[in-house]
Amino acid sequence: MYAGNLALALKSAKSGVETARKDGTAIPLAGSLANLGALQVAMGNSDKARHHLDAALSLSTELVQVRFSIFDSQTQLALFEGDLDGVQRGLQRCVEAQQIQSLPARSWYDLAHQSTRCAYYERLGEWSRVVEIAEASDAELARRQYKAVRTSLLCVKARALARLGRHADASAALATAVRACPRGAVDPLIVLEASKALCASLRGDRTTGGVHYDRAIAACRAIGHRYHEWWVTTQRDDVQSGAQMAVAPLHGDIVGTSLVVSDVATILGAGHSIDLLAHRVATLLQSTPLAPRVDVVNESGQEYRPEPSAEWHTASDGTCTLRVAGSDRVATITVREVTSIEEISLLKGIADLVQIAVARTADTEREDEDLTLWPRTVPPDADDTVFRSPRMVELLRIAERLAATHLPVLITGETGTGKEVLARFIHEQSAQKRGPFVPFNCSAIARELVESQLFGHRRGAFTGAVDAFPGVVKAAERGTLFLDEIGDLDPQVQPKLLRFLESGEIHPVGDARPQRVGVRLVAATNIDLETAADDGKFRRDLFYRIGGVKLELPPLRERKDEIPAFASLFLARFAHECGRANLRLADDFIAALLLYDWPGNIRQLANEIRRVAAMAADGQTLGAVDLAPEITLNWNSRPTIPPRSNAPAVEVRLDQPLAMAIADLERKFIEHAMNTSSGRIAEAAHLLGVSRKGLFLKRRRRGLK
User: Fold this and answer.
1) Taking the CB of residue 693, how many other CB atoms lie within 10 A of it?
2) pTM (two decimals)
3) 73, 118, 535, 598: which has the fewest Cβ within 10 Å?
4) With the CA atoms of 84, 86, 90 and 95 taken in that order, what torsion angle do they form, in degrees rounded to the nearest 10?
5) 136-185 tens-digit pLDDT
């Protein structure tokens, strides 16, 4: 509901209420007030919660589901305030609201409400009733993949079983809850931690229970969840009192290892919750000798960031800083006096872990697609490149950070790798995006005209200058000037470009006074400018001026995982251009593309797809045979499957369940091995590649003698 950020959720809910009131829409207003009330319950603001829920109830006379959720929130509020009579009234209202509905299956609201019912019976100590409620909902929750609700109910079931003294069953329920817990979900993680604490404490291991309780309460405080903090604290005070029983220590201190692994798993899944992420990183550091030197600062109300980010740097005095930002939150973790290589390695490892976490969060919507050969959709606003490989994604992130500065950027790479596309991306992400993007190819203009084309000229400045020309630098004012093939720039013009970069002034040919122009410069080249400077073909001072920040685009042969996406993108574009409909790419087409090294890079690939699309017929499935011979050379010379032997074959029907097919295959393999070995078990097992015991178990499972 709020991805671990209650403050932001509250802000969003208030915005929803204001918008609904402004528009005069009753139904959205009722829903927004109900959400706002539920959030106030979670944050422990009883009076505000009651006010919002009462207001929502008065607007939702005909909205049964909304009323149901309001009654559930009011019941939780009564639990929080210790009003058991109010809890009973709330539960009865939920039952009545449920009876009004006529649904083919239980609603999410109904299933989630079972947690509230269980909390009430926990308060009364009716543990068997709690187990009964949780078990009645588990199958439906598992079937419909409501993982967060299922985790909560499995946890409350485990707590009830532990109270009944059924510790083995409680451990089994907790194990199922751990497997069901959705990655990165904050609520279930808190409930799971508190349930582990109660079960450990009731087994007599109050030390382990105390550790889990501290972690649960710290997580509650990190996100401001006062409702969870209340019941967790109440249960802790109940079960942590009294003498501790002697408990055999777990081998190898598995508890400590488990906690560390749990922290790591939480970090990897909590990239969306900056507070929880910072808390678990701090917990890891607090368990080391670095603890006295660790400082954590959490800030809220910052500029909103749609995607999280993590930055890591070290200072000359040995201070290491990890800064994590996302949503409207910023967490800064500082470790002082880091000197030893072990300490630096530990902190670098944690920083890498955090950066992986935020990257996983930013890339979540692309995860499933990246596991397939074919991209499901063409990326929005796609141009001539696709940023899918890890190397290109990282390059894109660096370019985005550079775009926010005014530094000149030098893009290097082979021809056809997409340098202009990356330059346009930098422009579109920069403060100059409202201005023009002006490309200029330094090698496409006659040498004697380059200066006037760049800096402009007055009318009559030279023979043929019949009109004044402002120049491409002036044309790019308040925008971005992209100088392509800058390595081919005339040496006589290079000093003037250097002066412009240093002073911001241009001197048009024939003009008496210089003109000041504000332009962002992005340059590109496919040659080694440092070597050119050594050879005297390129000014070294100009190289230093434009090459302060270099981005190297890898050739297509080093990012072949992007080729399927490129092929799909270009086929859609050129099929439309050529008027072809329903063109498809066969697997051998893609395989042949992947086996070729593409010396011309993306430009060559695009031209080949354009040629194939132009030659194709409507509805054709394009295969490797449709590609140029030089491209399919590696594909055609691949190792072929050897001719079939005279060994007996097995025919498998494809219209049967997979399990039946596997069982049939295994039975026939075993029978063939036994016949070939004349019944000798050791030889048959060797033929099958299994142990004698494994063969025995397989024969018994398949009913073979």
Assistant:
1) 9
2) 0.45
3) 535
4) 60
5) 999 888 888 888 899 999 999 999 999 999 998 998 888 888 878 776 57
